[in-house]
Amino acid sequence: MTATVAQFVRILDHLAPPRLAESWDNVGLQIGNPDWPVKKVWTALDPLPEVVARACKNDVDLLVTHHPLFFKPVKRIDCSSPLGGIAAMALSRRLAIFSAHTNLDSVPGGVNDALVERIGLHKVRVLAGPADADMCKLVVFVPSNRVKVVLDTLFAMDAGRMGNYACCSFRCEGVGTFLPCAGSSPAVGNIGTLTEVQESRIEILVANADLSAVVRALKKVHPYESMAYDAFPLAVRDHQAGLGRVGELEPPLPLGALAAKLKAELNLSSVKMVGQADTVVETVAVCSGSGASLMTAAIATGAQVYVSGDLGYHTARDAQQAGIGLIDIGHFGSEHLVVDVLAALIRKSVKASGLSVTVEAVDMEKDPFHYL
Questions:
Q1: 3-state DSSP: the chain helix, strand, coil percent, rounded to 5?
Q2: Number of H helices, E strands in the chain
Q3: Distance of alpha carbon 45 from alpha carbon 365, whole angstroms
Q4: pLDDT tens-place string over residues 209-234
Q5: Model's pTM, two decimal places?
Q6: What's the per-residue H, E or C state across 252-296?
Q7: N or C, which end of the chain is more exposed by having fewer CB within 10 Å?
Q8: 59-84 pLDDT, tens digit each
Q9: Cβ atoms of residues 113 and 163 within 8 Å
């Protein structure tokens, strides 16, 4: 079966739900037509000109990057500019570009979980909750013979996700009654006659941010003219999703030894460290990318060290004052591992969907910084 960009958007939104993205971020389809066919997918950290050029040369149909092509609203596209040139190149070769950024940082199994796995942490928990993961319970009533199509629609919209489990729902059977009045067009029963129907009550968790889209999708497949449903707010968050992670080192390591381990494990030319090399580290706080904004959260965990990238001078001074160590592994160093992780996740989804698509990780990207 030939896949399309639209199908991959659904796959990627399931892997990293857009609702988990930070408010300032721009995730999802950056360039492309939902109807374009997809036979070859590449994953990369950045949509760099050289990456896009090689993708076009190799007849790639979809480039999935961590960092977005467009971070800010675009007022004009000048094809002589670097950004405009990338857009023109991609459009001329029908290369779609998709970004999974802070939503992939936050989702279980995403960038931060890949990083803590490399470090070797145990008893891992989220450092800071997602920007908007408030949930509601959606209840919808449907004739028993239409349960499957309704559930398939809900699951395709990523409803029913609880931690590491997907497609979670509850239903019970009952009898629904209605009397079609003049002007109605009932799918079941006749105007002026009280009708009883065997119905199922379906309960499922939905993110508040997704509720409107889910209800619209349900109305398209629900057989009744007037779909009966309720949405109950819940004081529940997805505690397995969010930025950063905290975990335990077993056995503990001196701070200097941990820094050396990270340098070797992530194949880095150098790392920066704040703190005494012989400080024993039992608890580690981690955030991929630029983690200075989560410094306060890291300190609050009681961790002996905070591992992240782009940690500046003032952050280092704050760490000294708070008595927490820092290991700065760089922005590129903390996130480049996502290229292989993302490719593996997409391959698994492609296989499960029965699509004939090849997926490859780009191996040409380098840290823009040179250390002398």
A1: 35, 30, 40
A2: 12, 17
A3: 8
A4: 789 999 999 999 999 988 989 999 87
A5: 0.76
A6: EEEHHHHHHHHHHHCCCCCCEEECCCCCEEEEEEEEEEECHHHHH
A7: C
A8: 999 999 999 999 888 888 899 999 99
A9: no
